[in-house]
Amino acid sequence: RDRLMGALMMPYVARLSLDIAWTLALWLPANMVIALLACWAVHAVVPSPGSGDGPRAKAETDEVPPPFDPERRLRRMMMVTLPFVALFYLLDSGAVLTLLFVAILAQQLAASTGAGPAVAKSMLLANLTGGLAAILCYELVVIDTQFAFMAVISLLLCLGFGFWFTSGHATAPLAGSALTTALILFGGSMAPFGDDAEGQMVSRLFQIGAALLWVLAAFVAVDSFLPEREARPVGPSWKARRKVRPGRERIARSGAPPG
Predict the structure, then answer these.
(1) Dihedral over Cα of 228, 233, 235, 238: its sign
(2) Which residues contact 212 (CB under 8 A, 6 or more apart)?
(3) Is the pLDDT of residue 113 over 60?
(4) From CA 2, how far away is CA 8, in angstroms rounded?
(5) Mean pLDDT across the stretch 242-250?
(6) What is the pTM (predicted TM-score) of this model?
(7) How many CB atoms lie within 10 A of CB 200?
(8) Dihedral, CA atoms, 133, 138, 141, 147, nearest 10 degrees?
(9) Where is pLDDT greater, at 233 or 190?
(10) Quick one: angle between helices 197-225 and 70-91, nearest 10?
């Protein structure tokens, strides 16, 4: 995901400022390393259930086939992302947040298999929840602008969505997308750019909605000719319909000879 977002954002940022582009190029891999080390540390302290390394787990892993074709999924993501990127740079209009969320949502929805209305409703709910949570966090930080208080609010935000994700509720899978939206909006509101942070957060929420509409419509079109998984041939195989001679059927049904 970081590589895709970096590839999409670097040309745009370089056009605005080379200094910001160099800063982004240096800090993007550094943030990836920090995130990787943090994930390792959390999994070492609180290992996830069912992550044993015994022979039984290894055998089950070897027997389960891969759930998807990586190359096929990458082609689907490319057909959704590249047209928007081309229009973004050719028309020289639009917000960089929309470009960023097209890349994020293209990866989150690449595995969708035709459940268009259900996916659209779920993603709208996730982004709306994340946006409202970001606005709430911003209003709390405005009360006390100390860095320590902002860090506590950010921690509570992540813990809240983490509890939602592990709650086992039917909407629990939406917590990841909602947290992504909340962190991007909340982090953008804390950046020292501009004055009208509240208005910008509402505007960014609409930009995320526009990116979601593009990705959903694009995947509906891509699913019509390149679905996530190839359609299996309809009807039983010729081997399953092969006729058995009457004599052989009697031999097969008869018991083994005595002795």
Answers:
(1) negative
(2) 101, 105, 120, 123, 124, 127
(3) no
(4) 10
(5) 50
(6) 0.67
(7) 18
(8) 100
(9) 190
(10) 130
d(CA 191, CA 247): 83
The amino acid at residue 190 is M
Q: What are the pLDDT digits (tens) for 39-86?
A: 889 888 877 765 555 444 444 444 554 566 778 888 888 888 888 888
| Residue pair 195/77 in contact by the 8 Å Cβ criterion | no
Q: Rounding to the nearest 10 degrees, give the CA dihedral for residues 210, 212, 214, 215.
A: 160
DSSP states of 65-118: PPSS-HHHHHHHHHHHHHHHHHHHHHHT-S-HHHHHHHHHHHHHSTT--S-HHH
Per-residue pLDDT of 73-98, as tens digits, reads: 888 888 888 888 888 888 776 677 78
Q: Which among 216, 207, 209 is positioned nearest to 97, based on CA atoms?
A: 207
131-161 pLDDT, tens digit each: 899 989 988 998 888 889 999 999 999 999 9
Q: What are phi and psi of 232, to 5 degrees?
A: -75, 150
Half-sphere exposure (Cβ direction) of 108: Cα atoms closer than 13 Å: 24
Q: How far apart are CA 233 and CA 231, in angstroms?
A: 7
Place of tokens 């993501």: 77
Place of tokens 């097969």: 252
How far out from the chain centre does Cα 133 lie? Answer: 19
